[in-house]
Amino acid sequence: MATPITSKIENPKVTSPAQWLAARKELLTKEKEFTRLRDELSRQRRELPWERVEKEYLFEGRDGKETLAELFDGRSQLIVYHFMLGPDWAEGCHGCSFLADHFDGSVAHLNARDVTLVVVSRAPLAQIEAFQKRMGWDFKWVSSYGNDFNYDYHVSFSKDEQSKGEVNYNYVMQKFPSEEGPGASAFYKDSTGEIFHTYSTYGRGLDILVGAYNFLDMAPKGRDEDGLPQPMAWLRHHDKYEARQFNAEKVSTPSKSSGDKCCSGESH
To answer: DSSP secondary-structure letter at 208?
Structure first.
């Protein structure tokens, strides 16, 4: 397997500690503004109206057959991750697997806040279990094979839908390259047992779930995806990376001229 190419950093702007600190504080002001905006957006998300879930769904998992209500596992809140693994797929989607690598460590903390996390795919259970074992994951993963759950929440598309050239994904009709799409949906169950759908997000709306991306966003080269055919072209299942997959590229550091402690330049 060829090693994906990463970019080089050439002629970075190097400055004095005092100038670096001033620039960092300027950016910090913008970061704090972004944090406040994100908190406000989260508040507005919680204030969205709910829709009652009228349809019955039956899933199959390691605990046997379970209804949507039973997936809550005694808690009032349920988050479902819609994992792209179709009935005839040899393995799960690379991107969904990237997200799923972050799930197991979150489960206990979510449970402590009255939230259950369940992963749902349309593949039959045996197919799910084989891939989950290979990946070494332990989170709860159930099959929606044979019910309409994936179709109703617009993460699976029938042959008839695909034949029309566009499918309903991320709240708009658009061309989509697969019969399955990624997403996450939130549900609430009240004291009477009624279930409500409160939120769903798709596409880039799932970025916030990818802890590794948040680390990369702090790295000197960021996500380093600009020159790739598509943003996640570098991505592999975690058991398919070669040893030393990425070799560090030499950084070209500008020399200091007399009386000049910084050189300007653009990073790629």
So the answer is: G
Sequence spans of domains, the chain: 50-212
DSSP 197: E
Rounded to whole angstroms, how far apart are CA atoms 189 and 185? 14
In a 10 Å sphere around its CB, with 0-12 CB exposed, 13-18 middle and 19+ buried, how is residue 11 labelled?
Answer: middle
pLDDT surpassing 70 at residue 256:
no
**Closest C-alpha among 38, 53, 29 to residue 187:** 53
- Which pLDDT value is given to residue 152? 97
Q: Report pTM.
A: 0.87
- Beta strands 167-169; 141-143: pairing state: unpaired
**What pLDDT is attached to residue 257?**
34
Closest CA to 139 of 114, 113, 109: 109
Architecture label for domain 50-212: 3-Layer(aba) Sandwich (3.40)
